[in-house]
Each structure stands twice: as structure tokens, then as C-alpha cells.
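Researcher: Here's the sequence for the chain we discussed earlier.
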Amino acid sequence: MTGQSNRLAWFALMSAGLGFAVLQAIAYAHAGVFEYPLDDVYIHLAMAEGIGRGTYGVNPGVPASASSSILWPLLLVPWPGTGVQRMLPLMLNFLALLGCGWAWGRSVMLGGFSGFVGVALAVFGPLALNMPGVAFTGMENSTHALVSLLIVLGLWRFLTQGTIGVWFAAALIVSPLIRLEGLALSLLVVAVMWMRGRGRAALPIGVAIVAPVAGFALFLTALGLDPLPGSVLAKMELVGHGLGPVAKAVATFWNNLQTLPGLLLAALTLTFGLLPVLSGRLRRAPAGVMLAVLSAAGLAHLLFARIGWMHRYEHYILVAQMAGLMLCAPAIGAAQPLGRRLVRRFAGLALIAAAVGYWPALFVNYLWNPRAIHLQQAQMARFVHDFFKAPVAVNDLGWVSWNNDRFVLDLWGLGSQEVRHIFFAPEPPPQGWADALVKEHDVRAALIYDSWFLPAIGPDWVRLGGLTMDGNWGVLGGWEVSFYATTAEAAPELREAMRAFAPTLPPDAHLSIDGAGS
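Model: Thanks. This is the structure I predict for it:
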């Protein structure tokens, strides 16, 4: 059995790693350079840089909670502002991806799958569930998926053998530190331990899960910030803005169901919840407990978290549920009239549905995103770092703020609590609301999407031009970044910097420079 387990684990690991290598090669061919597909990667790097110099934030001396993860920026602190630090998200994601592949292969083996079916599930599973695609984003989500898989494997071991390993406890504690969504799965597992008579272990593990999260909230409030990360609060307001908690949960649930991954998560959540109820034999088995835990965790995500943005938010719970299905397959098959064949077909259809939901967007849009980020955000950063060399306002915080000691005003609110309170206030912000902020922080230029921020523009701002690219391929907030001087006095300085910058752009990027502007 050990040889079989290792064989399937190696197959899954190699499938995940090869898929990642193919994605990187295609993206490099599109962009001509290595680049991440999300500007958000650089927000984490900028946060890590700030932590390294003694500020929890992206601007020196200005606290901000621009990262959704408690732990991830800490992992990126070494070698701040260097090319080595820039590669840390790539390396950490690749290692987490290989771990995900290995854990998936183990789940397939422990579920009793072998032969052609076992190999097919081991190889196809990581690709169908978009493991390489999520690692490709360079964010913390692959690490969260790995920890979630370890929780599922640890829970299965506990339910079948009564063992609580150190690695299992560590995964339960670390999960919410990587992503706050991990609280639901970790606490549900602790509740199972308690109900199964292991309170002496469950209590300290539960405290160790909750205490760091609570301590982080207290840390943020001590800095004068909201108790939840600003990036979390800003994204929560995108659905059900201004609604009460119950209405917002309903709105979030309904919004999540508008996507194919959301429907797949809902289908798995409903199926897992019903199976133990409909089968007394299954309900009394370890598989029934596993399915109930994963159903409850899936419902929590549908109600309180999001589906989307490069399909990374829901990744951890879908991977965990599918691994749980592999582990529970023998018990489900034995408890159902049509047996194991039905389970295999259900698992195959679920994986095919995941692939149908993920692959079109991955190949049509996301593989072009590194090119788009290189031609837009990276060029904005180069302009601010090397040509304008002054405080600026932006709507994409990451690249411009990383390795930059000058103040960057985030007009979206991820890195600025005062902006978020204005932008997401119960009443729409007044016309020209950003003008007071740029004057307060001595910001002389704004690099923004007009489609997002025309109402924010002050009466004295002067548009001097726009950054565009050939071929609008990928997914960005806008395809033209407008360059504004925030006062007439700042216009000559900005125009001179733009004229010096324009000839240095890569071939597919273009900077138009207006006359007097308006």
C-alpha cells in the first residue's frame, strides 16, 4: 500500500508542477518578461517591506492593513525591496502547489482508488481543480489550500484512528492566519474533537486558533485601524453595501451562486449535508462526520466569503471538499444502492464541472494578465520611482508602493482607512472627494482609471495624458491610466517627467501627452 500511495502522490505532484510550468511558459511568451498576473502580489511585498522597517503598512510611518492575510506578509519580509524578495511569492507558491499535489494523491489513495481510475483522478484532479492556476497568481491561496488539505487528511486520521498529530494541530492553527476564511473549517474540526471526547486536546487547540486572530484584531485597533484588515472590509462592501449582517449574508450567498464555481460549491455542500441525513449507516461512520464538517464549512464560505477574482477565494474549500469525497468514497459507495460506481461518476462529473468553470477564463484571460501588468502597473511604478519621484495617488497600490519610500495614496482604500471610510460610506461621497486628501498628503499627481474615479477628481486637477497598450488582453480594472496633476502649479513638473518617460516605454505601451489639459 505504501508503494501505491507514493505512486499516486507522485503522479499528482508531477501533474500540478508540470501544469504550473506550462502556465508560466505561456505567460512569459506573452509578456516577454516574468511578471505576476495580479498587482496584489506587490501589495503583500510592500506590506512585508513596511514590516521590515517597523511600520505595519505600505507607507513609512503610516499604519495600514492592506493585506487580507495575517501570516503571508511575514513570510515575505526577507530581502526587502530586492529581486530576491520579488521572487519569494513564486517560490512559496510552487512549493505549496507541490504539497497540494502530494496531499491530493494521498487522498485518492486513502479513498481506495487504484489502477486506471486512481491514476486518472491523481493526474486530472490538480488540473481540474485549478491548483496550478491558483499558484500562478502568486498569492497566499495555494498555501491555504495546502493547509486545508492537511486538515482534511488529519481529520480523517483522527476519525478512523483516533490520532491527533502535531502536523494536524499546526494546520488547524495556521489556516486562519493564512486566510480568515479558514476559521470555519478549523473550529468545526475542534468541535468534532470535543464531541468525540478529546476535550483535553480540543481546548488548547481551539484557544491557539482563536487567540492569534483576536490578538491581531487588537493589534490593528491599537494602531488606530479597524479590527479586520482593510482589504477584507473593502471587498466585503462590494456586495450588499450598506445592508445589515443577515441581509449581507443573503446577498453574498446569492452573488456567489451566479458563478459556476459557486454552483459547484453549493452542489457539493448540499450533497455532503444530505448524505449523512439520508443514510443512518453513513451517519454513524467517520465518513458521515467528515461530510458534515465539509458541508458546514462550504455553507460558511457561501454565506460570508466570496467566489472569484482568478478563482482563488473558493479554492481552499473546493479542494478540501473534493479530497474529502475521495476519502469518503468507500463508505458512501457501501451505503448507497448503486454503490461505488455512482461515487466515481459523481467525483468525475464534479472534476469536469470544475475544469469547465476554470479553464476558459484561465486560458482566455489570465495567461495574458502578466503582460497587462507589465505594460501598465509596472510602467506606472517605473515612472514614479525613476522619473516623477514624488508622492502620487493611484487606484492600484502594489507595484507603485513596493520598493518606494515616497507616500502613495490608495484611492481604492485597501491601504488607506480614511479613503475606505469615505469611499464606502453609507452615503455616496461628494464630488471631488479626493481633492482634500491629495492636498493633505502633498500629492501632486494622480495615476487613475477615469472610469473608476471621475467623481473623485478635484476642480483644479489637470489631465496631462494617458498610458495605454496595444491589445487589451487579460483582465484589468481599466485599459487607460490617466495622468493628472492635482494642481495647475504641479502640471509643468508632471509633464516634463512624462516627456522623459515616454521614450523609455516597452514597444506595446504608449503614453499620450495632452496639450494644456482639461
